[in-house]
Design a protein that fits this description.
The chain has 122 residues and is of the alpha+beta class. Helix content is 30%, strand content 22%.
Length: 122
């Protein structure tokens, strides 16, 4: 293995830090935009609302997967859902999480917003 096989240019004095995958400056990196577009377009367009408890220290969390939205729109919808439920939560990696068992309320709010959604799991 020679030094050219280790990932390529990492820093340029002209542009600063470089993306190792597309070899563009991080400010103009194409990888994240392509990954976000692929994540937003993947799936069948139906949001699935589930209630999860496993691996969360015994706490119940309402999880929404499969929303075909851009990350900014997902953040805004997550904020609206958390405010309506009066709970905390997060939006990361294309998944919305609302703390507590609010699956029915979240499902109703998603349907009222015009999203295709259904209850999944038990």
């Amino acid at each position: 293995m020679n030094k050219n096989d280790r990932g390529g240019l990492v820093y340029s004095t002209e542009a600063g830090r470089m993306c190792p995958a597309c070899r563009q400056p991080l400010t103009g990196c194409l990888c994240k935009a392509q990954a976000q577009a692929a994540a937003a377009s993947s799936g069948d367009g139906v949001a699935r609302v589930t209630r999860e408890k496993q691996g969360r220290g015994g706490k119940t969390v309402t999880v929404v997967r499969g929303l075909p939205l851009a990350p900014e729109a997902l953040q805004a919808l997550g904020k609206k859902l958390r405010a309506a439920c009066g709970a905390g939560g997060t939006a990361k990696d294309g998944v919305l999480e609302v703390q507590g068992d609010h699956a029915d309320k979240v499902l109703a709010l998603l349907l009222a917003e015009g999203h295709r959604a259904k209850r999944a799991g038990g």
